[in-house]
Amino acid sequence: MNLKAIYPVGIDIGSNNIYAAQLKKNRQDLVARGFVHRECEGAVQGIFDGGDGLIPVLREIAKDKRFRGRRAVVHFPSQYLLSFPITFEVHREETIEQVILRESKDFINFPLEEAIIDYPSLTPFISGDVNKYRASINAVRRDHMMQYLLLLKNAGLTVEAVDSGISSLIRLHSYTHKSIQNPTILCNIGSGQSLLSVVTRNSILVQRHVPWGVQMLLKSLQANLEFCEDKEKAAVLLKKYGLFHGDCLECSKGVDSGGEVVEQDDMRDMYRAIYQIINPHIEELVHEFHQVIGYARSEEHGESFEGIYIYGQGSTIHYLDRHLERRLNVPARLMNPLSKVGLSDDGIIPDVSEGSRFGLALGLAMRKVTWL
Questions:
Q1: What is the SS3 assignment for 121?
Q2: β-strand 308-312 against 130-141: which pairing, if any?
Q3: Is 90 exceeded by the pLDDT of residue 82?
Q4: How large is the angle between the packed helices 54-62 and 142-154, nearest 10 degrees?
Q5: Are the C-beta atoms of 157 and 279 separated by less than 8 Å?
Q6: Which sign, positive or negative, has the C-alpha torsion 191, 221, 315, 325?
Q7: Which end of the chain is more exposed for a tag (fewer CB within 10 A), N or C?
Q8: Is 240 exposed, middle or buried (0-12, 13-18, 19+ CB in 10 A)?
Q9: CA atoms of 139 and 161, how far apart (whole Å)
Q10: In this structure, what DSSP letter does residue 79 have?
């Protein structure tokens, strides 16, 4: 048989947006074949209650000429996914899977026989003469998974794999940055949900989907600024001013988006206003980071972190990396996958800086599929 390796369409379905990407091999490197973004606010919420609002949007993506084939790798919606770590011992005449089922029962809020359980990370460690393991567990309701796959099939997609968000994020980071050695904090900032995780070379110490996203910042700006009546204007302010207020004493005369010179005091006032509006929400994110970091340090006995790597819509918040670095005392960096993944055509994405939004979709798209 003549099997040909093709990269699937990676489809990241979030609470308010769908990001899709496909890659292809160009000599020795991966390049992006195409990108598609569609807004779908609230459509995910009703998919297991008879809602089919996603089908027309997904059908449009499946037919898009920028993609080759309709085979896809997807995430399961994080709102309906249970993720938790377990540590367990395997005794004689037991299998690892049997023990994982037994230990997971305390964390799953529905009958175990109705669950699909996966463990993207399983790490043995020495504890006397006992076979001891640490695992990161993902669990979903079986009927939810079947409904989800049927929805994607009705949209004209052939699902090759349902991947976990953390697995695609690790895959992306290992390709675009470097392989993970020391404990590393990986996060993907979304519109309504964000993924925070701490990973090492061999294990996932912690992964958390938190109900925090850029959308709440945009809504706060719209609600508190009279001249910011729509989401597009709020997004411009967030990207231009963001969290820079702490360092704006150093700013001098600048030029605003209309090309007019703005005096230093006026710029400081704007930086201060934006900062005061969004900072309460940013503190909620900082608190979530503290929770994740505290747990990881307890597992790794206080070992230091290599850094915080921020994917997704974090790039839309000016100075987010510097702010988190200062608040958490860990080096932080905003990541754009397109700094390492080339483009097959310069026209497939108008602004390369927007590539960070497609982070999880690219991580999914890197999961190669082989078929006739």
A1: strand
A2: unpaired
A3: yes
A4: 50
A5: no
A6: negative
A7: N
A8: middle
A9: 15
A10: G
